[in-house]
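Here's what a typical entry looks like (DUF4198 domain-containing protein):
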Amino acid sequence: MLRWMPFAALLLAAAAPAAAHQLWLEREGRTARAYFGEPVENLRETTGGLLDRIPGPRAFAADPATPLPLTRAADHFSIALPAGAGDVRLVEDAIPPFGRAGAEDRLKTIMLAREGRSETQHRLDLELVPVAAGSDTFTLLLRGRPLPRAEVTLVAPPRWERRLRTDAEGRVRFETPWAGRYLAEAIHTENTPGGSGDGAYARLRFVSTLSFLVERGIPWTDR
């Protein structure tokens, strides 16, 4: 087992309908790609397989009411970005509830993703927001309010994971010594029933990711 030095590396074992799977964004120029899988394992699910569990994501830049063009590809969703677009966000709230219909613990999962740390506004129900553009310090916001003492998992470019917790003000700071892409995940579950018929659920679970690039740092190349 590799160790993240000088930081303590802890593997995250997530209990969920798609255990340890995340939905995250990567960006290159005027194209963003949404992947579903396990970034720490460099696993990306494919169409015809588990990617089909993501039925209808919506992507947007500045305005949630203005969705961006999105197409399904072999192992991702491709998102066309307008010129000058800032941070990009994605919402997937069409996943059917998990569990037996009528069960007291039936769970509805909403998956959220953000790429970039240039904007200090929140636009998702659960979102890691930088305290300043380009900052390594973030506030975890739940419906616009800081979420204290919440667990956040960071995946660094060498694909090591580290568990952190937000402080009393909902803030968390990431160490970013390597150049490359970092990905953070936060999860929040609440006893909020909703839906009706086959879509009824007893609990609501938000899974939110943030990814961003660090251009300067210790070089890292996948081997």
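The chain has no helices and 16 strands.

More examples are in the samples folder.
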